[in-house]
Amino acid sequence: MANHQLDARKYFEVGEGSTGEYAPAPLEEEIPRAAGKGLDGIARAPEMDRHEHIMAIRNGDLGSLHSWELVTAMDGPGTRMTVFFAGCPLRCLYCHNPDTLHAREGTVATPEAILDRMGRYKAVFKVTNGGVTFSGGEPLMQPAFLAKLLRGAKEMGIHTAIDTSGFLGRNLSDEMMADTDLVLLDIKSGLPDYYERTTGRALQPTIDFGHRLSDAGKEIWARFVLVPGLTDDVDNIEAAAEIMKEFSTLTRVEVLPFHQMARDKWESLGMEYQLRDVQPPAKEHTDLVREIFRSHGLTTF
Question: Where does the Radical SAM core domain lie (predicted)?
Answer without folding.
Answer: 74-295
